[in-house]
Amino acid sequence: MKARAATPWLLLAPALIATLLLVIGPVADTLWLSLHDVVLFRPRVQPFVGLANYLAALHDPAFWGGLWLSVVWVVVAVGLQFGLGLVAALLLNRQFWWRPLARALVIVPWALPSVIIGLVWTWMLDFNLGLVNELGMRLGLLSAPVAWLARPEYALGAVILAVTWQGFPFFCVTLLAGLQAIPRQLYEAAEMDGAGRLHCFRHVTLPGLMPVMATALLLRMIWVANSLDLILVMTGGGPGTATQTLPLYAFLKAWTGADYGYGSALAVMLTLLLLSVVIFYAVRSER
Amino acid sequence: MSGMKRRSLLAGAAGVLAAAPLARPWAQRPTTLRWWYHFDNPTSSPAALVAGFEKAHPDIKVQAESIPWGGGSDYDTRLYTSLIAGNAPDCVMVKFYNLPRLLEMEALEPLDARIAAWSDRADISDDLWKLHLASDGKRYYLPLLYVILYLYIRQDWLAEKGLKAPADFASFLDVAKALTGGDRWGFGLRGGPGGHDHWATFVLGGGAKLIKGGLVTPEALAANRWFIDLYRVHHVFPPSAPADGFVQTIANMKAGRTAMTIHHVGSANEIVAVLGDKITAVPVPRGPQGQGWTSFGDQSNAIFASSKNKEAAWQWITYLSTAQANATIAGLAGQLPVTTTAAKTWSAQPKRFIDASLASLPIAGLMPASPQTTDFTRTVWPQTTQKALLGQIPPDEMMRIFEKHFFG
Questions:
Q1: Contact at 8 Å (CB) between B138 and B330?
Q2: Do B207 and B155 fall within a single domain?
Q3: Which residues of B244-271 are buried (b: 16+ CB within 10 A; e: fewer)?
């Protein structure tokens, strides 16, 4: 009896130990750092400052600016990725002769490293030598080249465009798998009841996709909220602070400013915000 | 001697003899030295240098580790964290801006006594030795390479317009305006990280000083206003300037989109490969009172205090700063050798660019030896300057932010 009770723990032990070492340990360390004044090049002086780093963040305009940009970044980028991914999944769920090739091609952006995507888009959007300005001018869509990454009104949109291109295949593949799991009979029954395409989509497809959509949206929201590589490569948070999201601000504070105490406090605050989304999702899915 | 004793002695002797082949390699095992380096061109390898050194010093094995640069942040953070983790290399390539932070960490081995006794000391000019003195009066760095920033200029465009290369700010503006038009701009500003060198040329050269209060004097504020006006009023920078990094400024130069920019010999061959004799270089223009400022870019070697192989490390870093090896590593790094012997025959870049570098030496300076400098060059300068260029903050506010960053 005792052996049976211990079996799950034994089987879970490798994963639990790995989580303890690779997740819980660093998180605890980050919490410790956030409560101290830790500057990388002053390793001998790391006084305990309690919640001072957190209070400083609450009085820091760059924190609130970064938080707002993070909200815009997540909502718009994930929304666009989801919309584009859903449309692509619906198209790829239909029969056409080059569907296998299309399914393979659509995954390419997802397979590329973020740094490569950042560099590709940086050069495509380049003011002097970029493809976007060249095409825009030739097609008559632009009267003059636009400095997409140097203008605060366009820079965030430009990086959102890049992350949308990178992320929509995730939704496409996930939702395509969900679509293929919806029983064909449900569509036949709906058609027999006189439902048109729109009604089928609304009353069969969407409810059938709901669990997949919720999980995919949650995962992607967390990934996009945490991601900073693409922004770092394309704009470095600029021009000014026009694209400096909260994780990028935390990264710059810690990595280039060497202020690990404050950077850790920012990271903990971001984690708490994301945890609230996860808890909301977990509670909803329990109902 | 009893039979027992004799047998023991023979057995012992046989054992020693048998163990000798095993013991010999251990006794002769060379000291392994860890050295961290970075070259702009990741395909450049110091393997030949290492082989040459190891041949001359069979008791030392050099483990040269290429560390990603990442705009400087990656290299520096790895450096500091390796020290904190107790896994630092024995010696390392460093820059001046690292010095204040490394001193604060008490990480560096003073080199004064070793340098004083070094026979090749005189092959490095006194000017360079003066620059390599730390704020506490000691020497922790051994000069290795250097660059001095100069002004690249399209001499074919100057000839077309009958203009001369600018020597002061007023003529710089005239030339920049004359060469701006259509899809061409007079000057390619680097508005991203690292662009503080461009700003410093015009603002420190225009009268600002990197001392307490020196960034907010009337001369300093006027110089900065003049600099921002180059973009906002005179439009002599490309519209993309606030976001342009090093790669964009050089690409624009090569593509014939800009007439001038500021950089050093490290990019000379790349630009000449595209533009040939159309491109030349002159010292950066001087300010209204005849003063000027250009950035001295250093590359030095240092030994860490934690190293257990300090003598071997000294042998290695002095080898790299001695004529022949110094020329080889300068070629790998695309920079200038510090030794007079190597400099005499230096031909890795066309002569006009080396001449422009040397002619700039009298006005070459360094950013302040402050722990704040790294954050300034990587984050504070680009963010604040971009805001001023875009009109989000007034130019004077930009200078007040810099003053506060450095001096509180």
A1: no
A2: yes
A3: bbbebbbbbbbebbbbbbbbbbbbbeeb
Please give the structure tokens belonging to residue B59. 């008791």
What residues of A are in contact with residue B257 (Cβ under 8 Å)?
Answer: 128-129
Number of domains in chain B: 2
Which residues in chain A have Cβ-Cβ distances shorter than 8 Å to B80? 40-41, 258
In total, the C-beta contacts within 8 angstroms joining chain A to chain B are 98
Residue A3: predicted pLDDT: 75
Q: Which residues of A touch B240 (CB under 8 A)?
A: 126-128, 147, 149-150
Q: Which residues of A touch B389 (CB under 8 A)?
A: 239
Q: Which domain holds residue B90?
A: 29-148+296-364
Min Cα distance B392 → chain A (Å) is 9
The shortest C-alpha distance from B78 to chain A (Å) reads: 10
pTM of the model: 0.86
DSSP collapsed to 3 states, A16-70: HHHHHHHHHHHHHHHHHHHCECCECCCCCCCCECCCHHHHHHHCCHHHHHHHHHH
Q: Please indicate, yes or no, whether residues B283 and B221 belong to a single structural domain of this protein.
A: yes
CB nearest to B241's CB, from A150, A236, A252? A150
Residue B110, number of CB atoms within 10 A of its CB: 14
Instruction: Kindly state whether A238 is in contact with chain B, defined as any CB-CB distance less than 8 angstroms.
Output: yes
Residue of A nearest to B101 (CA): A41
Number of C-beta neighbours around residue B25 at 10 A: 8
Residues B77 and B221 both lie in one domain: no
**What CATH number has the domain bearing residue B268?**
3.40.190.10
pLDDT tens for chain B, 408 residues long, are 444 455 554 454 444 444 444 444 444 578 999 999 999 888 899 999 999 999 999 999 999 999 988 777 788 889 999 999 999 999 999 998 899 889 989 999 999 999 999 999 999 988 788 888 888 899 999 999 999 999 999 999 999 999 999 999 999 999 999 999 999 999 999 999 889 999 999 999 999 998 999 999 999 999 999 999 999 999 999 999 999 999 999 999 999 999 999 999 999 999 999 999 999 999 999 998 888 999 999 899 999 999 999 999 999 999 999 989 999 999 999 899 999 999 888 888 999 999 999 899 889 988 887 888 888 988 999 999 999 999 999 999 999 999 999 998
> Do the Cβ atoms of B248 and A128 come within 8 Å?
yes
CA torsion sign for A61, A41, B41, A229 is: negative
Distance, in angstroms, between A67 CA and closest chain B CA? 17
Instruction: Tell if the CB–CB gap between B239 and A147 is shorter than 8 Å.
Output: yes
**Residue at B197 is within a domain:** yes
Q: For chain A, which domains are there? A: 61-286 (1.10.3720.10)
8 A C-beta contact, residue A135 and residue B248: no
Residue type, B2: S
Number of helices (H) and strands (E), helices first, in chain A? 15, 0
Would an 8 Å CB–CB cutoff place B183 in contact with chain A? yes
CB A122 within 8 A of CB A233: yes
Q: Are residues B288 and B401 in the same domain?
A: yes
Same-domain status, B244 and B378 = yes
